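Bumping my old thread because nobody answered last time. Still need a sequence for this structure:
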């Protein structure tokens, strides 16, 4: 049935593009941004807009939009999944599929730091802005902040993130900040996952904007998570990262980190949508069970 539904999306985009806004206005929103149990499981699907299409050993895993949408629909239909994070193209496809009713929806804001480019740290806001997120009836916006001490483009990205935090807070919308200390090695950008680097990144991100009242952090599972998370009182969600060869090790790391008082749930994409065994529903159910 899914190819037929995809054909309907294409037909709508060609002949009746105004239905996107109508679907957003008619969508039943989630009653709370924190979920019924005060915990969150969010499925992330904003990777393609940054040119990051790989998952596990497959370099173009996320390049097939129909396949991605079908995996997202499976994940969003599982019990305990609260919502989705994505760029406008993906979220609007899901709107037209009717997959976002009752879900928390987070719009991805800065996707301009394309993977593998010389301007990767200059992560400009090429996606959602705060007014658009409010207009669409979504629940918040997510931004990536990579801080490279040797790249002057960091300053502009940091300023743009601060403005986005303030703009979302003015509208009482969640600002989800994903911070890293980053370095370029042999022309490629790598995130420093050492505990001290993550502590520094979280400390910087926590102070962005005119208020932190609506700011959440999106953080990887690293060593000494208790010490890392003690750097801020802001609520945090664990990010999924790359598809691991040993998913049990990933799940164990999540489970341990979820015991910390300000870790409120998960934002995972490729690790749930493209598990090594191909069973999206089972991977999602396992992640939900950790909470």
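Sorry it took so long. Here it is:
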């Amino acid at each position: 049935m899914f190819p037929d539904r995809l054909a309907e999306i294409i037909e709508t985009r060609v002949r009746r593009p105004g239905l996107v806004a109508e679907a957003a206005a008619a969508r039943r929103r989630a009653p709370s941004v924190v979920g019924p149990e005060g915990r969150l499981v969010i499925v992330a699907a904003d990777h393609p807009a940054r040119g990051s299409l790989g998952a596990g050993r497959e370099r173009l895993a996320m390049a097939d939009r129909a396949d991605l949408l079908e995996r997202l629909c499976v994940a969003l239909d599982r019990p305990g999944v609260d919502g989705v994070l994505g760029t406008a193209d993906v979220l609007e496809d899901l709107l037209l599929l009717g997959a976002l009713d009752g879900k928390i929806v987070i719009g991805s804001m800065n996707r301009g730091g394309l993977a593998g480019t010389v301007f990767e740290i200059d992560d400009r806001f090429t996606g959602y802005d705060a007014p658009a997120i409010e207009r669409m009836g979504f629940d918040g916006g997510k931004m990536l902040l990579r801080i490279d001490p040797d790249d002057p483009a960091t300053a502009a990205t940091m300023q743009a993130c601060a403005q986005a935090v303030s703009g979302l807070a003015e509208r009482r919308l969640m600002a989800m900040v994903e911070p890293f200390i980053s370095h370029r090695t042999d022309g490629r950008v790598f995130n420093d996952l050492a505990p001290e680097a993550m502590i520094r990144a979280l400390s910087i991100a926590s102070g962005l904007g005119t208020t932190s009242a609506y700011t959440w952090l999106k953080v990887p599972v690293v060593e000494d998570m208790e010490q890392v998370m003690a750097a801020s009182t802001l609520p945090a969600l664990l990010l999924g990262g790359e598809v691991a060869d040993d998913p049990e090790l990933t799940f164990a790391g999540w489970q341990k980190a979820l015991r910390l008082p300000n870790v409120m749930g998960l934002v995972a994409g490729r690790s749930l949508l493209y598990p090594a065994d191909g069973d999206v529903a089972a991977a999602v159910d396992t992640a939900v069970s950790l909470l």
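The chain has a mean pLDDT of 94. Let me know if any region looks off to you.
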